[in-house]
Specification:
single chain, alpha/beta, 8-stranded mixed sheet, 7-stranded mixed sheet, elongated, disordered C terminus
């Protein structure tokens, strides 16, 4: 990767490079260094694009780690944070790297009208096709090249079909990375990462394979040892998560933290079809209060589509309410990591959660990654809690599913 563009390399006439594979395999760091070196080697001037899912993640994953090394190599680096520009100098030579976030379809407008000499996409599989293709269209300078890296997704993903499967037609160099390609990882660290994932996420992020989803979403939760007796006392703080439904079930979980671990200590689950009648918002609110009891709850995290229930909680003024983050696949991966590393534990008494863990399945008939929309209400409220309350870093213990 570091020298593919150099005239001494047999691949120097390639138009693009694609690097995929396991997490923590070193591909992002190596690619960012190679991209900067190439920009000085191949051009007398020009502008370049650095693209990530968000500018914040791009700075965290690529820009911040590479700056110390560039400075050690004799480059002068200056970040213009308000303009999202990185300036890199070597003697009289200056390169401008524009930072772009490709989080949704509207992001394509950010790069319109620019002329770039090259563009790098960090985690391209997380970006919309429209944004990626608009950025590629900006690379009209002579000798411009495309740089892609990502962790695998499903094999029907547009990037896999259009670029990896057609890499020879695209004149692209393809390099596949594993954790063994990163010399900074010890065997102990590699084993720890392997233990974080199971099922499809293990295949993708540890083995680096583009595989389709199948089977149980949380297969490891079939083990009775994954369920615990919640602490009877000593819980330091409390929170509630809620997936709200009228015709569909409403599921609420009461969470308590002790010694850095969040326990699902109790739950409320009402299925109007099973019970034969529906409850009003006020009746569900009364159930929330009964679930909480005399505990001092820090916040209630609620399904973001439940606008009327969120407004009701706010109107009563007894609890701080937060609309949940609702990215399903990223949320499932985060929950999976939290359950496996023990940061979140499910009480043995939470019968509906245990039932849904056994029934929650990937929808194998869809091309993308989505679970079947059945037996998912406790699963959703658990996901809301982990991604919004635990993983928010705002007053709650934070942990991150490595990517």
């Amino acid at each position: 990767m570091l020298r593919w563009w150099h005239k001494s390399s047999p691949d120097h006439l390639r138009d693009a490079i694609i690097c995929d594979g396991a997490v923590r395999s070193g591909k992002t760091f190596c690619m960012s260094l190679s991209f900067v070196l190439w920009s000085f080697y191949s051009f007398g001037g020009g502008d370049f694009g650095l693209c990530g899912k968000t500018i914040r993640s791009l700075r965290r994953n690529m820009v911040t780690p590479i700056l110390p090394l560039l400075r050690k190599l004799g480059f002068e680096c200056e970040e213009k944070l308000s303009q999202n520009i990185l300036l890199v100098r070597r003697g009289r030579l200056l390169r401008r790297f524009y930072l772009f976030g490709g989080k949704d379809e509207s992001s394509a407008a950010l790069v319109q009208g620019m002329t770039l000499s090259g563009v790098l996409f960090d985690e391209v599989a997380l970006m919309p096709r429209s944004f990626t293709e608009q950025a590629l269209a900006r690379c009209s300078a002579e000798g411009a090249r495309f740089w892609f890296n990502c962790n695998p997704e499903h094999p029907a993903h547009w990037f896999y079909r259009e670029w990896i499967a057609r890499r020879e037609a695209k004149n692209a160099l393809y390099l596949h990375f594993t954790m063994d390609d990163n010399p900074s990882l010890s065997e102990e660290v590699k084993r720890r990462y392997e233990s974080l994932y199971s099922g499809v996420f293990y295949e993708r992020f540890v083995r680096g394979r583009w595989v389709a989803v199948h089977g149980a979403v949380y297969p490891f939760m079939a083990d009775d040892a994954m369920y615990v007796d919640p602490p009877a006392d000593g819980l330091e703080e409390f929170a509630v998560s809620c997936d709200y439904g009228t015709v569909n079930p409403t599921s609420m979980g009461l969470w308590g933290k002790k010694d850095g671990v969040w326990y699902r200590v109790d739950e409320y689950y009402f299925d109007s079809r099973r019970e034969g009648f529906q409850k009003t918002d006020e009746e569900h609110y009364a159930a929330l209060k009964e679930l909480v009891g005399e505990r001092n709850v820090r916040r209630v995290v609620v399904d973001p589509s439940a606008a009327s229930f969120i407004e009701l909680i706010r109107r009563h003024g007894e609890f701080k309410v937060t609309p949940a983050r609702n990215n399903v696949v990223n949320g499932i991966r985060t929950v999976s990591g939290a359950l496996k590393n023990g940061s979140v534990k499910i009480g043995k008494n939470c019968a509906d959660s245990r039932r849904e863990f056994q029934l929650y399945r990937w929808d194998v008939d869809r091309k993308g990654d989505l679970p079947v929309k059945e037996n998912d209400h406790a699963m959703d409220d658990i996901r809301y809690f982990v991604t919004t309350a635990v993983n928010s870093g705002s007053g709650f213990q934070a942990f991150a599913a490595e990517r």
